[in-house]
Design brief:
By secondary structure, this protein is α/β, with parallel strands linked by helices. It has one domain. It contains eleven helices and nine strands. The strands form three sheets. Strands 3, 4, 5, 6 and 7 form a five-stranded mixed sheet that branches. A hairpin with an 8-residue loop joins β3 and β4. α3 packs across α6. It starts with a helix and ends with a strand.
Length: 293
């Protein structure tokens, strides 16, 4: 692996920067699964909070949702960075990240946030790491592939990226969620190109906002492009060309520009310099819209 690529994924971005919590994160478990299990015990997914003690939480492995204050809601729009998450963990419990965290003190956040915190801790420990955005079809009770964010870290001894899904790690999948086999996670570049070539059914790919098809895949693709550049943007933010009202109006030439980006992203490490050049020069892929932007 090119050392420049590994050095890039050792760098913190605005979202993974631990700020004043860096020295604390260095004390957390070094073994990846042990670290992931610790993180998982400190979060509740908003869908779990909404559903309560049924479905995947029928055994209350995520905690008794009846103990959660009635006014608690998803906190995705509030705690957007590692530093913000860590500050709130400590505000609610002075022990910080703890396996004994009470349900009412857990953060209500989705996969992006768990993946970001995992990547931040690994970077803190000197392990190259990156967040990825794509789709997962391995959750229980679904025939579709749903938008999802995971983490990859570089295993020096095995000379490969290892894909881990901390947020989804307590689901029954039949494989190791701390070393997800190739082909189980639907990376967005492969998905985009597969749909464009009509090798995949576009409506198989969905997101939690109620969207499916090419527009949802395009969002995941640009999330992933920004993640590869260490900028794990919010769900609310997109390049103007993929905003919901604009996407159906894209010309074939504009769609081919996205095809070209996705083709490079199929092998992001070998094409790192080309992707970095796009990042530094192509405004339409970099400048975002949404919320107050």
């Amino acid at each position: 692996m090119n050392q420049r690529v590994l050095d890039h994924y050792l760098e913190f971005g605005i979202f993974t920067n631990p700020g004043l919590y860096k020295s604390y994160l260095e004390t957390l478990p070094h073994e990846v699964k042990e670290l992931g299990e610790l993180l998982r015990k400190n979060f509740i997914h908003r869908s779990t909070l909404h559903a309560g003690n049924v479905g995947t939480n029928a055994d209350m492995k995520y905690g008794d949702m009846k103990e959660m204050p009635w006014w608690r809601q998803a906190e995705d729009d509030i705690l957007t960075t590692t530093a913000a998450m860590m500050a709130e963990f400590f505000r609610r419990d002075e022990k910080g990240l703890t396996p004994e965290r009470k349900v009412e003190n857990k953060l209500v956040l989705t996969c992006r946030y768990v993946a970001i915190l995992m990547a931040s801790i690994l970077k803190t420990k000197g392990i190259p790491a990156r967040v990825r955005s794509g789709f997962a079809s391995y959750f229980e009770n679904t025939e579709d592939s749903w938008d999802h964010w995971i983490t990859q870290y570089w295993n020096k001894s095995e000379n490969r990226w290892i894909t881990v899904d901390v947020d989804g790690s307590w689901h029954r999948t039949g494989f190791d969620m701390y070393d997800i086999p190739d082909g189980k996670f639907d990376f967005s570049a492969q998905t985009w190109l597969g749909v464009r070539k009509k090798e995949m059914e576009e409506n198989h790919f969905r997101n939690a906002g109620g969207f499916d098809g090419q527009v949802a895949i395009a969002w995941a693709l640009f999330y992933d492009f920004h993640c590869l550049m260490n900028s794990e943007i919010l769900y609310l933010h997109h390049p103007e060309l993929t905003m919901y009202g604009n996407f159906p109006k894209l010309s074939e030439d504009e769609l081919k520009e996205i095809d070209d980006l996705a083709t490079l992203m199929l092998n992001a490490d070998e094409n790192f310099e080309k992707l970095l050049h796009i990042w530094e020069t192509k405004k339409k892929f970099r400048l975002l819209k949404g919320a107050l932007l």
